[in-house]
Specification:
binds adenosine-5'-diphosphate, binds magnesium ion, 10 strands, alpha/beta, single chain, 6 helices, four-stranded antiparallel beta sheet, Rossmann fold
Length: about 230
């Protein structure tokens, strides 16, 4: 059984008489532990796809299976519970708790889940060992992004949805964030879906999906997987 499966997803937004078809018959299967990179121009439906996969947005039609269960039929309460248990979100802005230090922010993640993964281990994996006593405002953007990755892992997320995780970062810091994501994937086998408009990032993926106008226009296996430090930037 595949880890996650999307069948013929359509998502329409209605604003007055205006209708936008944000997702137009999208089908996709995800395997446990793979890194999928989704590329596409602005407005092509990337964020909508993530929001629908996580149940943050209701789909107009189609089905979404998670480990064989059709989650698109879940009630609001059930889908919220599902999200809390299984999903980690990594956004461009970090949603961290300013009054807590790095260690404490990650601990909050751990307390949300039933996880008892070793926090020190997680901190080491994302490369924040020397920063764990710092408060959020004392960190760079890339370091903050790595705290949010660590927090999702501490919570025991099975899948991480990353929407432009390096969108606000320069090459050096952006690559550190990608390195943390890849390490987490290797160590904890967390499935990763990474949205980006930076074509260089496709080379860290196991599969590369291209979107345009709400459709998947190509889906290819990446046979030349690279270390984040080796990828071209932009
Ligand atoms: N909440 C919304 N209400 C109305 N239209 C939306 C909403 N969210 C996204 N859209 C539209 O859906 C399309 C896809 O948007 P989005 O998924 O954000 O694209 P991307 O992330 O690839 O830039 C766009 O045309 C956008 O304007
Ligand atoms: Mg977007």
């Amino acid at each position: 059984m595949e880890f996650m499966k999307l069948e013929h997803i359509v998502k329409k937004y209605k604003l007055g008489t205006e209708e936008t078809i944000a997702l137009d018959n999208v089908s996709l299967e995800l395997e446990t532990g793979e890194i999928i990179v989704i590329l596409g121009p602005s407005g092509s439906g990337k964020t909508t796809l993530l929001n629908c996969m996580s149940g943050l947005e209701k789909i107009t039609s189609g089905k979404i299976f998670y480990q064989g269960k059709d989650i698109s039929k879940y009630s609001d309460r059930k889908i919220t519970k599902f999200r809390k248990k299984n999903i980690g979100f990594i956004f461009q802005n970090y949603h961290l708790l300013e009054n807590l230090n790095v260690y404490e922010n990650i601990l909050v993640g751990a307390n949300l889940g039933k996880n008892k993964k070793n926090i020190d281990d997680i901190i080491e994996t994302v490369g924040l060992k020397n920063h764990q006593k710092k408060y959020i405002h004392q960190l760079s953007g890339g370091e903050q992004q790595r705290v949010s990755i660590a927090r999702a892992i501490a919570k025991n997320a099975n899948i991480m949805f990353c929407d432009e995780p390096t969108g606000a970062l320069d090459e050096k810091t952006g690559k550190k964030v990608l390195t943390a994501l890849v390490k987490v994937n290797q160590k904890y086998h967390t499935t990763m879906v990474i949205i980006t408009h930076n074509p260089g990032i496709q080379y860290i993926g196991d599969r590369i999906i291209k979107m345009n106008s709400g459709k998947i226009i190509s889906c290819e296996k990446n046979n030349q997987k690279m270390n984040p430090n080796e990828i071209p930037w932009g």
